[in-house]
């Protein structure tokens, strides 16, 4: 804060400064005492009133704090820089960033050369990505204090983030010329930051030249080698790039990115579809040479399987898997799962492991073994385990279950087998049995966090919520023994708990969990504020820029995308169900569980000012059942907020666009609906759900079109539909008639158009070979139109919970 102006006496100036000191050290009681002493002498002093308001707000009295600051502003006739600065701090604390920036700018009108206010303003401008304002603020600071090197690098980062990279390079040079960079690591970080900007400009030649200049000054050899290799590839200097990647492989032969670059440097592609036979053989020879240098590298042994074909593939696969089987490495199937995209390789995998199984049963050893000594019994165990994974991958669920049961009979103490059996049950919809198997696996090792997590996931999928909470509590309690999944930001748990509540039609409780995930993401965005000053001071510039760019797309992470989609589904279901959803949101058992959970919360303790301990009861949670979230005035508006996030941050997510279409049809916003349809068609043209929503859009739009919508919708719609909805639906079933999901969508369109109901029923009953997800769609649609498909679905998935009588 700035110094207090006259007519203060010296004693009161010092007293005012002590208020600032006590506030910064969170000694609020002494800060208030000092403020009251000043106000006893000067009751209308604006700056003291503002500081007292800031301290009172920090103690939890928000409204009183704001009133005191506003009183101080009025006493100063709104001309006190300190009052405006304090107001900015309070707005910042409340995450009201726009008002905080306005307050800081008002403070600078009356305290034009206050560096601290300028730094606070710059941090806030960076936080909201106001790069234009940030450049102006940082430039003004630099003009005021050009001798301070930190202001140069701050200005350079502002120029970089604003896109003016050339000027940023000039500013960095100015920083290096005047900065005290005696620490070699700080110098290295600045030089490599400059190099990263040169690379972003798209100047590989300049990047390599600069790396040569700083060869003896940098302290990050891995970054230098990686950057050099990328630039050499861009400049088509393949021989130099090959040598650089070889140097990187010496450091880490398991890095797939290095192998991809190495292949490109050798003039090869990492895809067999774009390689000739000679190129494939050349690549295999290269990896044989690498294997001599790195004989223990699993990646070097695995990558050739992507390219080898025919007998060559089978021979290499045989050699590769024998090591896994003999050393009982559980991750064998994970290691070669990606090969299942090639049907010819799947066939050879099955032939190879079938021969292993027969030989191990008949002779006790793998075929063509080097010695007459029999293999360990575990070799047969892991062969059976692999075959269970193999048939599960091919959707041969019955055969997969037979293999896993044989493996359990062979070695009933192997935990992985019970996890595998749980997965098999999950894939056939038997979620209760899957949860039982996962819990059985957990009981084998109660100290294993992974097994605990898996058990919780399976229990939640089976909608056994209270059991899941009890199991999760083992690893989700704080030092006082309180359940703190929310404090741990355990988003996987909250997502799955919300999904379970959604299936149980407890929409308010579901929304509470999905909004918890949203709150975590927003908290992570706010957390970056702590790093704006710190990163510039410590000169961790590359990491700082990387963090800023990651924060810009944080809502694209799968935890948030999943929560957003589920929140949209929940709001749409609330609209469809009306008042009836309020009756199912909480049951008598929920109230009992809540009381039990509260009783289990132990009181926390904290140190008081006298050094003793005092108990602090946990804060009472608000809206335990999410009823405020469920009973919002406009659920569509709340759902649209999530839709806009998905369109902006997860534009490649098909399900997000399908939900957007449904929402915009409810709003009769046909312009946004058609935009989501067009984007969804770019992602998956033949998707069954997309076909239904496209037809439903055409049907509703045709009945409600207006001139304003026609200007936007018709030019886009004509690109895929000529207006004949019946023909469009018939053409789709002709192209996709073998897929049950397509049959369900076509049937739904026919029902929408009130066409042949017998044909509708015959389509949804023809479910042979359908996936579980497709069967669920058909089953739900059958229930909607009063057709019970339980018998047909049980023929396909007899163990599935949802199809049981």
Automatic annotation (TrEMBL):
Q: Which PANTHER family match?
A: N(ALPHA)-ACETYLTRANSFERASE 15_16, ISOFORM A, N-TERMINAL ACETYLTRANSFERASE-RELATED
Name used for this protein in its record: N-alpha-acetyltransferase 16, NatA auxiliary subunit
The record's Gene Ontology cellular component field reads:
cytoplasm
Q: Which InterPro entries does the protein's record reference?
A: NatA_aux_su, TPR-like_helical_dom_sf, TPR_rpt
Swiss-Prot/TrEMBL TPR repeat ranges: 81-114
- Coiled coil ranges (UniProt) are none
Q: Which organism is it from?
A: Acrasis kona
Alphabetical UniProt keywords: Repeat, TPR repeat
- Positions of the UniProt region annotated as Disordered: 592-620
């Amino acid at each position: 804060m700035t110094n207090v102006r006259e007519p203060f006496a010296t004693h009161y100036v010092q007293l005012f400064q002590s208020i600032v000191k006590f506030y910064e050290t969170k000694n609020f009681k002494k800060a208030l005492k000092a403020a009251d002493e000043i106000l006893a002498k000067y009751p209308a002093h604006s700056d003291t009133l503002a500081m007292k308001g800031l301290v009172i707000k920090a103690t939890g009295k928000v409204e009183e704090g704001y009133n005191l600051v506003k009183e101080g502003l009025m006493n100063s006739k709104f001309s006190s820089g300190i009052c405006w600065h304090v107001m900015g701090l309070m707005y910042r604390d409340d995450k009201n960033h726009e008002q905080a920036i306005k307050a800081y700018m008002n403070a600078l009108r009356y305290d034009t050369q206050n560096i601290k206010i300028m730094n606070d303003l710059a941090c806030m401008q960076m936080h909201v990505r106001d790069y234009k304002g940030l450049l102006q603020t940082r430039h003004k600071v630099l003009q005021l204090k050009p001798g301070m090197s930190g202001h140069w690098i701050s200005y350079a980062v502002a120029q970089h983030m604003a896109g003016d990279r050339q000027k940023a390079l000039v500013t960095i040079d100015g920083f290096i010329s005047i900065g005290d960079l005696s620490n070699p690591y700080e110098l290295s970080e600045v030089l490599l930051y400059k190099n990263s900007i040169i690379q972003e400009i798209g100047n590989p030649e300049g990047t390599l030249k600069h790396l040569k200049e700083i060869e003896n000054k940098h302290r990050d050899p891995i970054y230098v080698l990686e950057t050099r290799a990328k630039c050499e590839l861009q400049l088509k200097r393949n021989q130099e790039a090959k040598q650089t990647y070889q140097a990187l492989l010496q450091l880490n032969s398991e890095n797939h990115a290095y192998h991809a670059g190495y292949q490109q440097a050798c003039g090869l592609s990492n895809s067999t579809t774009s390689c000739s036979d000679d190129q494939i053989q050349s690549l295999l020879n290269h990896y044989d040479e690498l294997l001599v240098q790195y004989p223990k590298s699993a990646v070097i042994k695995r990558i050739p399987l992507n390219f080898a074909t025919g007998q060559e593939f089978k021979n290499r696969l045989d050699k590769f898997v024998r090591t896994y089987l003999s050393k009982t490495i559980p991750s064998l199937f994970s290691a070669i799962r990606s090969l299942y995209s090639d049907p010819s390789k799947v066939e050879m995998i099955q032939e190879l492991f079938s021969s292993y199984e027969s030989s191990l049963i008949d002779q006790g050893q793998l075929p063509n073994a080097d010695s007459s000594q029999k293999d360990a019994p575990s070799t047969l165990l892991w062969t059976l385990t692999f075959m269970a994974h193999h048939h599960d991958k091919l959707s041969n669920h019955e055969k997969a279950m037979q293999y896993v049961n044989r493996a359990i009979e062979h070695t009933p103490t192997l935990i992985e087998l019970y996890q595998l059996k749980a997965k098999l049950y999950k894939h056939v919809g038997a979620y209760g049995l899957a949860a039982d198997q996962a819990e059985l696996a957990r009981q084998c090792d109660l100290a294993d966090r992974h097994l605990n997590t898996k058990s919780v996931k399976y229990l939640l999928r089976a909608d056994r919520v209270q059991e899941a909470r009890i199991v999760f509590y083992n690893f989700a309690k704080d030092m006082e023994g309180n359940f703190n999944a929310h404090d741990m930001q355990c988003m996987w748990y909250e997502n799955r708990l919300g999904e379970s509540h959604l299936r149980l039609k407890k929409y308010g409780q579901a929304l509470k969990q999905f909004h918890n995930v949203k709150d975590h993401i927003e908290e992570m965005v706010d957390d970056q504020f702590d790093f704006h000053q710190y990163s510039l001071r410590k000169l961790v510039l590359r990491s700082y820029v990387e963090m800023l760019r990651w924060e810009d797309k944080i809502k694209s992470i799968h935890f948030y995308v999943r929560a957003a989609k589920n929140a949209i589904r929940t709001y749409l279901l609330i609209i469809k169900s009306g008042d009836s959803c309020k009756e199912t949101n909480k049951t008598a058992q929920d109230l009992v569980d809540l009381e039990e959970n509260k009783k289990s919360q132990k009181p926390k303790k904290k140190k008081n000012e006298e050094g003793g301990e005092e108990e602090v009861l946990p804060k009472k949670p608000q809206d335990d059942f999410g009823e405020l979230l469920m009973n919002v005035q406009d659920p569509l508006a709340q759902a649209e907020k999530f839709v806009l996030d998905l369109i902006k941050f997860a534009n490649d997510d098909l399900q997000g666009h399908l939900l957007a279409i449904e929402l915009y049809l409810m709003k009769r916003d046909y312009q946004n609906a058609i935009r989501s349809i067009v984007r969804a068609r770019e992602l998956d043209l033949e998707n069954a759900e997309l076909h239904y929503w496209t037809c439903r859009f055409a049907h509703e739009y045709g009945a409600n079109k207006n001139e304003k919508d026609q200007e936007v919708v018709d030019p886009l719609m004509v690109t895929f539909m000529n207006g004949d909805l019946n023909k469009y639906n018939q053409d789709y079933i002709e192209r996709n008639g073998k897929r049950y999901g397509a049959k369900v969508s076509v049937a739904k369109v026919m029902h929408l158009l009130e066409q042949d109901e017998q044909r509708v029923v015959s389509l949804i009953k023809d479910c042979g070979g359908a996936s579980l997800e497709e069967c669920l769609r058909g089953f739900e649609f059958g229930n909607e139109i009063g057709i019970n498909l339980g018998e047909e679905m049980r023929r396909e998935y007899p163990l599935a919970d949802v199809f049981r009588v």
